[in-house]
Amino acid sequence: MHRLASASDFASVYSIYMHEEVVPFLGFDPLSKEEFEPIFASLVRSNSFFVVELEGVVKGFYRVTRHEGRANHSAYLGTLAVSPDEKGSGFAFSMMTEAIKNLSAKGILRVELMLEADNPRALAFYKKLGFVQEGIMRSAYKRSNQAHYIDEFFLAKLLQPLLGGINV
Ligand SMILES: CC(C)(COP(=O)(O)OP(=O)(O)OC[C@H]1O[C@@H](n2cnc3c(N)ncnc32)[C@H](O)[C@@H]1OP(=O)(O)O)[C@@H](O)C(=O)NCCC(=O)NCCS
After folding, report:
1. Structural domain containing residue 81
2. Per-residue pLDDT tens for 64-108?
C-alpha cells in the first residue's frame, strides 16, 4: 500500500535510509536520529513523501514533486529506496510501477530523476522500467567520506509518446 508518510513512520524510514547499502545513494550523509528528525519532518510536511508497506511493514519510500507552470506535466522522483531485505525481490519494481500508474492517473506525462554515476544497480533498475538517460550533471554530488565529486545522471521516462522537438 502506498500512502503519504506520517510522523509515526520515523523509525522505519530512518532504518532504511541510514542502512549502509542505502545511505550512499540518497541526499544526506549518515546522520544520527536527532539529526535526521528535522529532515524527516520536512519530508512529511511536504505532502509528497510516500511510504510503501508490505503486510503492514514499511519496505520502501519515494518522493514525488510535480513541477509548476509550463512543466506541470512533469514530476520529479527522489529520495527513493527499498529495504535491503527486499533488494532483488521485485518489490522495488512493483513499487515503481504502481507509483508511475498513480502519476499517470494524475495527468503526469513525464517522470524525471537524478542518479549517482556510481550506482550501476539503480541505473539497471531504472532502465528496466523504461527510463532513458538524457544528460549528465558533472560533479553534482559529494559524500563527506570521499575526496572526489560524483557525476549525476539525469534520467526521464515519457509515460506516453509526446509531440516534441524545437521545430514542431
Ligand atoms: C535502487 C533500488 C530501489 C532498486 O531495487 P532492487 O530491488 O535492488 O532492483 P532490482 O533487483 O529489481 O533491479 C536491479 C537490477 O540491477 C542489476 N544489477 C545489480 N547489481 C548491478 C551492477 N553492479 N551493475 C549492473 N547491474 C546490476 C540486477 O541484476 C537487476 O537486474 P535484473 O532484474 O535484470 O537482474 C534498490 O537497490 C535500493 O533501494 N538501492 C539503495 C538506494 C538507491 O540506490 N536509490 C536510488 C537513488 S536514485
Report:
1. 2-158
2. 999 999 999 999 999 999 999 999 999 999 999 999 999 999 999
How far apart CA 45 and CA 105 sit, in angstroms, is 23
Instruction: Give me the count of residues in the chain.
Output: 168
- Taking the CA of residue 119 as reference, the ligand 1 atom at the shortest distance is 44
Q: Is the CB of 163 under 6 A from ligand 1?
A: no
Residue 167 is assigned to a structural domain of this protein: no
Whether 164 is covered by a domain: the verdict is no
Rounded distance from Cα 123 to ligand 1 centre (Å)? 7
Question: Can you give the CATH number for the domain in which 62 is found?
Answer: 3.40.630.30
Pocket flag, ligand 1, residue 120 (CB < 6 Å): yes
Distance CA 116, CA 3 (A): 27
Ligand 1 atom nearest residue 21's Cα: 41
Mutate to test the pocket of ligand 1, among 19, 121, 127 (most ligand atoms within 8 A of CB): 121
Please name which of 96, 84, 168, 85 lies closest in space to residue 131, comparing C-alpha atoms: 96
Ranges of the chain with pLDDT below 50: none
In the prediction, which pLDDT does 67 show? 98
